[in-house]
Design a protein that fits this description.
This protein is α+β, with helices and mostly antiparallel strands. It is built from 15 helices and 16 strands. The protein starts with 14 loop residues before the first helix and ends with a helix.
Length: 492
């Protein structure tokens, strides 16, 4: 049937002309016997009402927004937004904000609820700069996750008040933050008495990527000035390309170490997996989605940051690392102890979260934080007067594990050096002993060139003394069978 097309960009429309055109179209459809037209009258008047609303200008617009990132949009919606709202194209929510400002009379206001990613993600920089230069951002309330009482609680959202007018010199952007509260009701109550912080709006343009923050950081040096952050490699097919090291009998030249995330900050962690690399010429080149990122970091010392959640860190092992991590590599190797002390402290998490509240932080963001090099060099000198500890671990899931069932290497806070720790008595002792009984040996035992702390290497040598107890055929019988000693006796 024939419907009246309303122009993509709202214009002032004469309601009488619209009514006449609509009635003519409906009459034509009825004359040709269109059954839909018989029941379309009421709906058609709704379309007419929508056209009337879209043709107006308003003093105050208060609304929520639709939630759909660019990746989830269909071709028609994506192309429409890209054509009419190129600055806000990364999310329908930001395009919606632009649309609301279009409907607003000069001097009017928009109060809106929308995701907060646009405040800090690099992909929204042009959108932020436009708003900061052309609109008065009066009040931002960071709500964070679980801000809705509905199942939409996972969104990181904010409340935003904007005056649709060019900001005067010295205009203050005010904000308050209740994102740490974990319940919608508590957030609502906290909004009533939360501390309000005001910063000059124009000053936000001087922040890295024009990020909108509650405080200015332009007077401080950034970590990015002395280091670079590399994004990790994407394998393209995890079940095929990534294995735990204990699943591969003899790695050979096909497999290389593939460092990953850590659940909590530790000197040496994330060393569980191998990557099917094949000298870089195998499947890694042809698999859809595979990206050979981070190669420039290989062979260099640095800090590996797990990009999700609490941003746990570990010392980077100089080889391949996965795409859930980012390697921070200092421009001058001597800066590494200071960078490690900063990144492994709570100050680093706080600094990153002040500029990026997204669950997964981009690698570029991880170094766009204030960094006081002299201060952290002093901290490093006090904490690590003999340098950072060399690779060591008592965790049998790490390929740098020494292989001894009871041996341990620990950090001694008094001497500020690695030391032999007390013999381990945790549950892994039995696991390691059984594995050794069956003839298993750890990568650190098989690779004399692996970079290890001297004390770690000493335990590797101690582990060699246990080879005489390994069963030769790899079959250990729990009860004695045909002359085989019982497993418990062999284990002891």
């Amino acid at each position: 049937g024939s419907l009246i097309r309303v122009d993509n960009q709202p214009t002032l429309v004469d309601r009488t002309i619209l009514e006449k055109k609509f009635e003519q179209a409906l009459r034509r459809e009825k004359e040709v016997g269109d059954p839909v037209a018989e029941t379309f009258g009421e709906t058609g008047h709704g379309v007419l009402k929508a056209a009337e609303l879209l043709s107006g200008r308003y003093n105050y617009i208060i609304t929520n927004v639709p939630y759909l990132s660019r990746g989830g949009q269909g071709d028609l919606l994506r192309s429409f937004i890209e054509e009419h709202h190129p600055r806000g194209k990364n999310d329908i929510a930001t395009a919606f904000l632009e649309r609301c400002l279009f409907f607003c009379r000069p001097g009017g206001k928009v109060s809106i609820v929308l995701p907060q990613n646009w405040l800090f993600l690099t992909s929204y920089r042009q959108f932020r700069e436009h708003l900061l230069k052309n609109e008065c951002l009066d009040l931002l309330a960071w709500l964070g996750p679980k801000a809705f009482q509905t199942p939409m609680w996972d969104f990181n959202v904010l409340l935003l008040n904007i005056s649709h007018t060019k900001p005067p010199v010295g205009h203050l952007l005010c904000g308050l933050n209740v994102s740490e509260e974990r319940d919608a009701g508590v957030k609502a109550r906290s909004l009533l008495d939360a501390e309000v912080v005001c910063v000059e709006q124009a000053g936000q343009l001087e922040n890295p990527d024009a990020r909108i923050l509650l405080e200015l950081i332009t007077d401080e040096d950034l970590l990015s000035e002395i280091s670079y952050s590399y994004h990790g490699l994407t394998s393209g097919d995890v079940p095929r390309m990534r294995f735990n090291f204990w699943e591969i009998g003899k790695p050979g030249s096909i497999w290389i170490p593939y460092q990953g995330t850590v659940g909590e900050t530790t000197c040496y962690g994330g060393n569980e997996c191998l990557l099917r690399w094949d000298d870089g010429d195998g499947a890694i080149r042809i698999l859809p989605g595979a990206r050979r990122d981070g190669l420039d970091a290989w062979g260099k010392g640095g800090v590996l940051v797990s990009q999700m959640g609490n941003l746990s860190v570990t010392i980077y092992g100089k080889f391949a690392f996965d795409n859930n991590t980012a390697a921070i590599i200092p421009q001058i190797p001597a800066y590494l102890p200071a960078i490690w002390c900063f990144c492994s402290s709570p100050d680093y998490y706080t600094a990153v979260r002040e500029i990026d509240q997204k669950l997964s932080v981009t690698s570029a963001t991880l170094v766009k934080v204030p960094f006081d090099l002299p201060h952290w060099q002093k901290v490093a000198t006090e904490q690590y007067p003999h340098g950072l500890p060399e690779p060591h671990s008592d965790d049998p899931t790490q390929w740098i594990f020494h292989g001894h069932p009871c041996g341990s290497v620990i950090w001694d806070e008094e001497t500020k050096m690695l030391a032999r720790g007390p013999l381990r008595t945790d549950g892994t002792v039995l696991h390691v002993a059984i594995a050794r009984l069956l003839g298993y040996r750890w990568p650190a035992e098989l690779d004399p060139e692996m970079e290890l702390a001297d004390l770690q290497r000493e335990w590797v040598i101690e582990s060699e003394k246990l080879l005489q107890f390994a069963d030769q055929d790899g079959i250990v019988c729990i009860p004695p069978v045909r002359g085989e000693r019982p497993a418990v006796e062999l284990l002891r």
